[in-house]
Amino acid sequence: MALDDAALDVLFRNARTQWEFADEPVTDDDLRAIYELAKLGPTSANSSPARFLFVRGPEAKERLKASLSLGNIEKVLAAPVTVVIAYDPHFYLKLPQLYPASDVKGWFSANPDLAEETAFRNSTLQGAYFMQAARALGFACGPMSGFDRAKLDRAFFFQNSWKSNFLLNLGRPKDVELPPRLPRLGFDEAAQFA
């Protein structure tokens, strides 16, 4: 069943990166609802390596601030929540639970380069699923890089092995006029048939 035009507008056509948010909190229940949708997206061998850190409150934001590039500080401090889309490089330890039909843990435990590549690629996918789930539930998103990954990881992930991938500011949309959408490549510029 295809989505109607209204849903496609919410998810794609009218969806924009947003840096200003309504003065409304993003609750724990909101974040759980987003995650419950996002977790359903496919990953390699159902590996699900993404991990999500929800940064709210002045103390946590201050810790995050130290790793941000100057152009991102105000954006992060103004957002109701900033989600650190991260990944667990040892995601394969959960594969007996996530992929019980076959023993695939050894694919990754015996090949650290493959494990790292798989974790980064699939956590990126899961971050995109999270963003689309948030949009589907009425939230606005501001994804970004522009931070020192090593510094962030030292500040937040010193007790586990998680590694940051990208950041996502999240909140209810603020009724502001956004600048025109930047150009996108046409089909013939970005695609080809084999």
Automatic annotation (TrEMBL):
Gene3D superfamilies: NADH Oxidase
Name used for this protein in its record: 3-hydroxypropanoate dehydrogenase
Keywords: Flavoprotein, FMN, NADP, Oxidoreductase
Position of the signal peptide: none
NCBIfam families for the chain: PRK05365.1 (NF003768)
Pfam name, any one: Nitroreductase
Source domain of life: Bacteria
CDD domains: RutE-like
Organism: Acidocella aromatica
EC number per UniProt: 1.1.1.-
Entry GO MF terms: oxidoreductase activity
SUPFAM superfamilies: FMN-dependent nitroreductase-like
Cell membrane is among the record's keywords: no
Residues of the Nitroreductase domain: 16-171
